[in-house]
Queue: 2 jobs
Job 1
Amino acid sequence: MAECFETSDSQHGHGGVGSAIGDLAARLWHSSNMCPKDQETGKALPVDLPSVNLAADGEQIISATERKITVVSTSGHRSIDATIHLPDNYDANNKYPVVLAVHGLAGSADDIYERGGFEAMRQAGSIIVAPEALRGPVFARSWQSPTENITVLHNGSDARGQKIDDVKGIIDVLAAVKKHYSIDQNNVNLFGFSQGFGVAVAVAATLDKDQAGAVRRVFGAAGTIPSLENGALAGTDVVHYGGEDDWVEPVANWIVGSHGRAPSQDTLMREMKQAKSCPIDSAQMALNGVRMSESDCHDGSHVVELRDPLGEHCVPGQPASLDNTPLTGMTCSAAAGNPLDFESIMQNSVLDQNATYPNLVRRAISLGTRTDLPAGP
């Protein structure tokens, strides 16, 4: 049995194209008499619906390479909007790598696409999928889960009081994309910024439990709220960037409060390596102040840690136009002196299965003059 979804601002957000599509999907169920009501309470009753449904009339063709879709996720207890960016000359007869990009707290699908440099990855031949969180009581989008350590500010419910679970919802989005688009099943990748990294880890851990290596790589930037208790990400590489000047840890701990914790970058990566059983540091180097360490794991996967003593809470290499914006971006572009192009690492590892991470990092770091670097490696 599945859920029908009531249309409300608390369910679908407050304005914008994404929430409008979510409202449309909900109205489709009502208008086709698929949402019967309890005569006494007026609440929606369970109906027989598929567990994952890409609402046919909920898909909007924005351009030749962009789609906006709504996936009705009964396991996640909400309809979830996502933007799909297709390569130029997309051909369903070919197989394409996919990167699912998860925005951070107060972000959006469009924001992470621009901030993460994913347009370059799309042009290079990857499908980019960007799901979107709901707005909460303070109108900031935030991912939610009743079981994972990712919820910030609130955890909403559907019309029947079931807690929203965005981890399951994003898994349903990925399932729908695999069904309707031509995906290389051996090259499924996730990216998460800030809160989104915790979501990406939880999604990968859930999928890897059923099939080791179901997610090929998880990329992250400034991850603050991971979920490491539910799995070791079997067969999945993890590549994470963190800045030692990242101010978000104490702020995140204050926001999260009793809901969980926001560990330091050191704690985050140490726990990641322990969970994945990666005892051996196979490569270490420092270029222009950016330090890299790579650990080999027992299952053949790798954990790569990138640390920048001057780094901020951001995706390094973002467009200069996004520097110095509140909360989600500071001095992160090459124009502002950040030497690392994180998108380059993602793109080249996704497109070149034989590339090694040290070589990818060398190619991604600008070796121009940088001032005020701390001493030591």
Note: The first helix runs from residue 9 to 12.
Job 2
Amino acid sequence: MLICKRCDKTKDSSEFSEPVGDKKVFTKGKTCKACKKLIKGINSKKRYQETKHIDKEAKLKVNRDWHKNNKASVRLRNSEWQKNNQDRVRHNTLMSAHGITLDDYKSMLIQQNNLCAICHGAETKISKKTGRTKNFCVDHNHKTGRIRGLLCDDCNIAIGKMKENINSLKAAIEYLSKENENVGN
């Protein structure tokens, strides 16, 4: 049993965040979970009350400062959220980068039989970040923004290295064709 330093109530040790040994019976100095939750709520309400009368720029500065001073906490919270909301993260990424939804992406993938639009192969590259097979890249015209299809990482890199220049790609095909003709003789 412990006494909460905030509410002065005697509570079971399971109602405190930190594990407590048998020797610390009736010790005062720890805050129970309920009081910590209340304090957190009061602090966020207090911060809101302190900033509600100031303009938007000042509020943004307060938030930026808080995030700057609590980087580790923010990073942990964000990574936890991303881990638990992978579909929403993918949806948001697709929306902001290409203006399509996750459902649009999935229907394009089905239309392509889950294969690359150029080489007709499956994506085999493994992401260093997640350790899973990478998603197909959304290929789009950089001038118009129009989406052309979904490509494996290798094909996407290949047309990117050729700067999406049709003449360069035709020249590469011609070059490879000559080499193949010479090998055949």
Note: The two ends are 90 Å apart (CA to CA).
